């Protein structure tokens, strides 16, 4: 329902620099590390979208959300980012129920490691 563009940092190095000595907490603070990983994925999507011609959104409806939704023509992909934090996939499941034609990716999962995603070896559309 909500498809407004999400604000995202293009350069996650600025995020870690701003943390100063607290950046060592990234190893222990799952929420902080999760935010950084999600921002890195978002920054990569924004950069790829500018080159490859797709749009980047997020989706949220009645408490269910998907980290990123990308659209190129009729192609639609829901992307959830996992970085060791505990978070359900209810948003992705609901999105797929409403948009069964969409591809679903879990970045940081076994089928789509974060490193592969950031190296652009993962197909973003069917």
Q: Level of helix content?
A: 25-40%
State the distance separating the first and last CA atoms.
23 Å
Helix and strand succession?
Answer: HHEEEHEH
What's the average pLDDT? Answer: 83
Which residues form runs of ≥5 with pLDDT under 50? Answer: 1-8
Q: Strand share of the residues?
A: 15-25%
Structural category is alpha+beta
Q: Enumerate how many helices there are, as a single number.
A: 4
Total beta strand runs: 4
Task: Calculate Rg over CA atoms.
Answer: 14 Å
Largest sheet: 4 strands, mixed
Shape: globular
Draw up the topology in text.
Blueprint: H1 12-19, H2 30-52, E1 55-61, E2 64-72, E3 75-81, H3 90-98, E4 103-107, H4 114-118
Parallel strand pairs: 3-4
Antiparallel strand pairs: 1-2, 2-3
Structure description:
The protein is of the alpha+beta class. Helices cover 36% and strands 22% of the residues. The chain has helices at 12-19, 30-52, 90-98, 114-118, and strands at residues 55-61, 64-72, 75-81, 103-107. Residues 1-8 have low confidence and may be disordered. The chain contains four helices and four strands. It has a four-stranded mixed β-sheet with strand order 1-2-3-4, with helices on both faces.
């Amino acid at each position: 329902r909500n498809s407004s563009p999400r604000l995202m940092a293009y350069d996650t190095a600025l995020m870690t620099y701003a943390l100063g000595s607290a950046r060592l907490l990234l190893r222990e603070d799952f929420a902080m590390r999760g935010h950084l990983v999600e921002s890195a994925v978002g920054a990569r999507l924004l950069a790829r979208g500018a080159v490859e011609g797709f749009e980047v959104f997020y989706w949220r409806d009645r408490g269910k959300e998907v980290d990123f939704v990308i659209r190129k023509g009729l192609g639609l992909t829901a992307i959830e980012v996992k970085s060791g934090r505990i978070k359900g996939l209810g948003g992705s499941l609901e999105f797929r129920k409403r948009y069964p034609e969409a591809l679903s990716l879990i970045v940081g999962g076994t089928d789509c490691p974060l490193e592969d995603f950031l190296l652009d070896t993962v197909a973003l559309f069917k």
